[in-house]
Each structure stands twice: as C-alpha cells, then as structure tokens.
Amino acid sequence: MTTTQRRSKRIAIANNKGGTGKTSTTVNLAAALAEAGFTVLVIDLDPQANAGRRLAVKPDSHLATVSDVLKALAERPNADLAGCASDAFTEIGWPAPYNEHIVLLPSRTDLENRATLEAGQLGAVHRLDVALDGADDEFDVVLIDCPPNLGHLTQNALAASDAALCVMDPELDGIEGAIALRDFIKSNRNKLANSQLEVVGYIVNRVDTRTGAHKFQTEESIPEAFGEHLWTPMLPERVAMKDAADADPPRPLRALGRDGQAMAERFAELARQLSERVGLTTSAAAGVK
Questions:
Q1: How many domains does the chain have?
Q2: Which of 46, 105, 29 is nearest to 277 (CA)?
Q3: Burial classification of residue 63, based on how many CB atoms lie within 10 Å of its CB (0-12 exposed, 13-18 middle, 19 or more buried)
C-alpha cells in the first residue's frame, strides 16, 4: 500500500462466497456515510458491475471504468500514472444529498478478462493502489466492492486498503467464506506489502430467524467464530432491499417508506461503527475545502 500521507480510509468489502450481500452493503453503507456528511468513493471491482447499477449509473460503452485504469497501468508500466483512477470517476444517478457526497469508479464485464490477463504478472497486484495514489485524497472513505472470491481483483483491493470488512449470510458457506477471507489476509498480507491489514469487522446480512439454521448460526456459531469483531445490528432479509436495487432507476433505501427507513437506520448504525473503528474524519472536520 502506498505510504504517502492521505486523508481517505480505504475499506475492501469482501467474502470468498457470492450471494452474501456485499454489493448491497457497500451501496447502503455509502448512503449512510453520505447522510452523515462523509465524502465517499465507491469502487466497483466486481465484473458484474452491480454496485454501479444500484447507484443508478447506466452502462455506457464510452464510460471509462476501473478496467481501463488497470489496462493503462499494464500497458505503460514505466509511465507515471499514479492517481490515474480519477480519470474514470463518475457521478452517481441518485438525487441529493447522495450525489453530492458519493462518487463511483465504475466497472464492466471486461474486467474479468483484465483480471485473467494480469494475474501473476509482477507488480500487477498493486495496480489499484497506484491508480488511487493521490486520486482519493478528496474523499473521507473509499469502499471497494470486491468480487466473491480471493482472486486477483480482490487481492488488488486488499493490497490497496487500510482494512477489510467482511459481509456474510448466516449459511455455512457464507461463514466458511468469511473464515477463508480472514485466514487469507493473515497468511498473505506481507506478500501484499500490507502488513497491518486485518478484517476490521463482520456484518451478518440476509438473516431470517424464522429458520432454525439462521437462528442457530446467528445466536451461537457466528458469535463464537468472530467474537468482538462481529458488528450489530445484523441485517434481516427485507423486501425493501430488493425493491431499492430493482427499481427503475434504483433508489436509496430512504425513498422506500417505513421498511426502507428501518433498514436505512440499521445501515446508519453500521456506518457509525465503521467510522469509529477506522477513525473517519469528515472533510469539514478536517478543514478540507
């Protein structure tokens, strides 16, 4: 990770399993942080590009993406391209106050091909870090939505981040994916040149306590496995989450009535915990204009 002084805190949101709600958590944490006055850069590092879609950014073949940023660094290894990620920063489609506080570094499906080409290349795992160097200074926090694995793209996110945040569902596969992420970081953070990296918290998502398995996992297995690093509240399965994501255009939770407001308040509490754990400071508090 770059050692130059910067104000932003970079958080990789990850799990070694799909379907845990990483993207919805990334987007709704960004919304909660924006409501609290923080400036947020959301990086869509998943080739499915769902974070961008949920922030109401329409796919556009002419839109610069994180794939273009990584490609530029790969093709011009001797050029001074530090901070080139800013060339692909994009406004989100949500209304104020969200569009005043959240900026997107979008993705598209060809990012999968880019990851395949770059995996194993010398220095490739640090290209996102280089691309962000100086480009994210204007933000309070950077949230990186990782793909559901521990491959090249997730490793780029981990190499560039101050901390990881794990999102799991209360299923055995989701718990095992969280443990795999934790163990991977412990075993490989030195290889990523990020020796201080750790999982700062675990968020449990998509909980349905009407099922015996979910009740057991949330009350016994998960607290036992993750202890004090387990954040609350746990996030229940709610229609508002799907409605917000599937609306045309997608909308923030607070636009969806009582159920949406209740979920937004849960994310506000999780955002408060993130702020405390990683020491976020708003631009205003830091005296940044």
A1: 1
A2: 29
A3: middle
Q: What is the DSSP string of 133-172?
A: TTTTTT-SEEEEE--SSSSHHHHHHHHH-SEEEEEE-SSH
Q: Is residue 260 part of a domain?
A: yes
Q: Is residue 1 part of a domain?
A: no
Sequence-ordered alpha helix ranges (H) in 57-205? 66-75, 98-101, 111-118, 127-132, 152-160, 172-188
The CATH number that applies at residue 134 is: 3.40.50.300
With CA atoms as reference, report the closest residue to 264 among 93, 25, 91, 92: 25
HEC letters along 244-282 = HHHCCCCCCHHHCHHHHHHHHHHHHHHHHHHHHHHCCCC
Query: How much is the pLDDT for 287?
Result: 45
CB 12 within 8 A of CB 167: no
Residues of the chain with pLDDT under 70: 1-6, 283-289
Write out the residue range of the structural domain in which residue 48 sits: 9-282
Is residue 161 assigned to a domain? Answer: yes
Residues 117, 121, 122: CA angle, nearest 5 degrees: 160
Is residue 2 included in any domain, yes or no? no
pTM for this one? 0.95
Predicted pLDDT of residue 16? 98
* CA dist., res. 68 & res. 149, Å (int): 21
SS3 197: coil
CB neighbours of residue 172 within 10 Å = 11
Can you give the pLDDT at residue 59?
A: 83
pLDDT of residue 120: 84
User: How many other CB atoms are found less than 10 A from the CB of residue 281?
Assistant: 16
